[in-house]
Amino acid sequence: MRNPSFIRSYCSGEWTEDIDYLDESGKVIYSGKGIRSVEPGIDDHVMVGGLKKPFLNTSAVAKIVEIVKRWKWGPELETQLDKLQFMPNMTHIIQAMKIVKDSDASLSLFRWAKRQSWYVPSVECYDILFDGLNQSRDFDAIQALFEEMVQESSDNGVSLFSAYNRVIQYLAKAEKLEVSFCCFKKAQDYGCKIDTQTYNDLMMLFLNKSLPYKAFEIYESMQVAGCLLDGSTYELMIPSLAKSGRLDAAFKLFQEMKERKFHPSFSIFASLVDSMGKAGRLDTSMKIYMEMQGSGLRPSATMFVSLIESYAKAGKLDTALRLWDEMKKAGFRPNFGLYTMIIESHAKSGKLDTATSIFKDMEKAGFLPTPSTYSCLLEMHAAAGQVDSAMKLYNSMINAGLRPGLSTYTALLTLLANKKLVDVAAKILLEMKSMGFSVDVSASDVLMVYVKDGSVELALKWLRFMGSSGIRTNNFIVRQLFESCMKNGLYESAKPLLETYVNSAAKVDLVLYTSILAYLVRCQEEHDERHLMAILGATKHKAHAFMCGLFTGPEQRKQPVLSFVREFFQGIDYELEEGAARYFVNVLLNYLVLMGQINRARCVWKVAYENKLFPKAIVFDQHIAWSLDVRNLSVGAALIAVVHTLHRFRKRMLYYGVIPRRIKLVTGPTLKIVVAQMLSSVESPFEVSKVVLRAPGDSVMEWFKKPIVQQFLLNEIPSRADILVHKLNILFPSSAPEIRSLSPPKPLIAGRAI
Fold first, then answer.
1. SS3 state at 654
2. Residue 694 backbone dihedrals phi, psi, to 5 degrees
3. Is the separation of the CB atoms in 611 and 569 below 8 Å?
4. What is the pLDDT of residue 585?
C-alpha cells in the first residue's frame, strides 16, 4: 500500500552528471550539466537554465480551478487534468474545491483525484463535498458519497469522524428519518464517535415525527457511549420524557442537570409540573412548582390550570382552591374550562356551597355555564335533597335557553318523587315530554319510587296522571302496585290494576294467584271476601277454574274429587313451577281446612305427595323408624299430612304386621303445639320434645286399634272444643315471603266428606 505521507519534495539542486553534445560528425560541441524537458504529471518543477524551479501552490491551485470551471465534469475534464505540467497533491485539490464551490464540479475533481497515486483520504475534503451537496439539497448524492466514505474508511483505517457526524446532522435536519438513522447505525458499527450535536439532531427528528421511543433509544445509546449531555439536550429530552410518561427518567435528568450547574428553563419546569400532576404525583409536582418560583420564574396561566386540574381530579379541593386564589392574585383570569371543572368537582364531592359560589362568579365573569355544569350542580342538589336549590337551577337553565339532559330530568323527578311533590313532578314530566324525550321510563321510575315507599295513594294518583297524559308503564310496575294495594287492603283499587295487567297480555302466574288466595284465607270481612273472590276471578288463571270445580258436587264435575285433583296437577310444568306448586298446595290446604273440607284437603295432599312436591316428607327406615317431616308446611297442610300419614302407617302396621321401633313426627317449634293438641284429643301416645313428637311403635299399634282413632283417621272427627287449633301464624313456604297469616283464630271444623 502506498505510504500516504509520501509527497514529492520541491528540489532546487542541479544535475551532477556531465552531458556531451555532439555534431553530425561526432565532434563535441559542448560539455556541461545535463538539461531535459519536464514530463507532465511526473515532475513537480520546471527547469530554468540548469536549475529546478518548483510550481507555486497558488499557481497550481489556479490552474486546477481554471480547468475545473471550464470543463466541469466528464472525460474532457479528466483529460485536461491528466495534462497538468506539474504533480498535484491533496492540498491543491482541497484549495481548488473551496474556490470552485460547485458541488458537481467538486465531486468530479474529487473522483479524479481518488484515482491518482498521490491521493490521500482527507476529512476536510469530505467536509467540503458534504457541505456543497447539502447546500444543493442533493441528499441522494450525500448518501452515495457517505457509502464511499464508509468503504474507504474501512479499507484504509482512516478516521473520518467529523464527516460521519456532518452527514448524519444534514440528513436529520432535512428530516430524512430512515436514511439518517441508517447512517447513524453504520457509524456506530464502525466505531465512529458520535458527537452531542448529532445525537441532538437525531433525537429532535424522531421527536418531531412522534416517535419518542426511538428518540429514547438514541438517548440510551448516547449514555452507553459515555457522551455528556449539553444544555440543549437536556432542554430537549426532559420535556419529551415527561410528556411520554417516563417520569422517573425525566426527573433523574432534571436532577443531573442541576448538579452539572445547568439552569432549567421554564419549559422544563412546566413539563414536569404538568406531567407529574397528571400522573397523580402531586407532592413532586408541587415541589417542582415551588422550586421554580424560588428560581425567580413566574408561573404561567397554563401551569396554574394544569396544577388546579390535577389537584381537583385527585379530590384535593382545598389545595386546588388555594392555587385558584394564587392564580387570580397573579393577574390571570380562569378560563371557561377551569370554571367548569372546579364547579363540577366541588359539586360531585358534596361541597355545594363552594360550587354554588364559584358558579355565581362564573356568571359574573361573563361565562355562560354549559348544560353539563348546570346538570352536575342540579343533580348534586337533587341527591342532597335540596328541592328549592334544584328547582332554582332548573328554572335558570330553562331561562338561559339550555336543554336539560335525560340524567338531569331523572335526578329532578326522583327528588320530587321522594319529597312526594306529585303535582310539581307532573309539571316537570310534561315539560320533559315537550322537549322531545321519551317519558315512559321516567314516569315509571317515579311510580316505582311511590310503590317502594309504600305510598300507595300517591302511586295510584300518579298512575291516573300517567293514564290521562297518554304515558304508559310496564307490567312489572303494575304488578308491584297491585301487590302493594293488596298488602294495604285496597282491594277495590287492586282489581282494576289486575285487569289492566291481564288485558295487556301479561300472564298471571301461579305464585300471584296463590298470594291472592292467601289474602282470602286471612280475610275477616265479608265485604272484602267478595272483592277478593272477584279479584281471583279476574286473574283468569287455570287454578281458579280448579278451585271452582273443587267446591262443586260430583254431578257438576262429572268425576270424583281425587281424579279431578290429579287432572289439575298433571297440567303443571314441574320443571318451571315446582316451587309455585308447593306454595299453592300449602295455601290451598290452609283454605280447605278452615272451610272444613277435610276430604278434599286429603285428596290434594295425596296428589301433591304422589307428584313428589314433598319428596322427603315421609321416610320408612325398615323396622327401625318411620317419620313424617312437616316443618316446611303450613298449618293446614301439616294437620292434613299428619292425619293422612298416620292413616297410612295404621294400614301398613295392621294389614302387613310391620311394626317399627318408633314413629316420629318432626314438626319444628312452630307447628309442635298445633299437632300435639290435635293428637291429644284422641289420647295419642306421642310425647312432645323440642321439635319432634315421638312414640314407640308398639304403643302406636295399640293406639291404632281404638275405635276413636279409626274414626279420627277416617275423618270422623267429632266437633269438640279440644280439637280447635291455633291461628295460622306461620310463614308460608313460598317465593312470596310477605305472605303471612295474620287472621284471628279460626276453628278446624271437621265433617264428613262431601
1. helix
2. -135, 155
3. yes
4. 93
